[in-house]
Amino acid sequence: MTRALAALLAGLLGMAGAAQAQRLLHAGTFWAALERPGGLCEAVSRAELIAPPGSPQARASIAFSRDRKRRGELHFLAARAFRPGAAAVLTVGDQEFLLVTRGQSAWSRGPAQEAAIIAAIRRSAEMRLRGQGVGGRISDRYLLGGAPTAIDAAALACAG
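The structure assignment produced for this chain is given below.
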């Protein structure tokens, strides 16, 4: 296991806190798939830029649930809050998507947009989330190596 992969997994597995059990479904180059308590499965990654100690790590997740209420729900947690009322723009390859924001979070606008984003992720090498944050611009880059396999592993784990 490379140091980069080990650091990614340590950060991802620690996201939900020590009290929650989670199962690693897949570990790829920059993405992993996790099964979390309560019937939630996620493909997850962190932004390329590592947050300084004591600061939140920007991360992305694509969630699926056993009850099928989540079927590829895209969520970003930025390192700091978005400016109230500001939108975020996600660029995947050459496609841009306008996301909804609140606090430090940005979400896809619904199932049709989620499907289009996942399709773009499957054929791209990177994506970037940009927006106006409290105290300056937010620009988080995510590498997509291993993302398709992590997405498939999360979807499959919660499909059954």
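Interim note for the steering committee: The radius of gyration is 15 Å. The longest strand covers residues 95-102.
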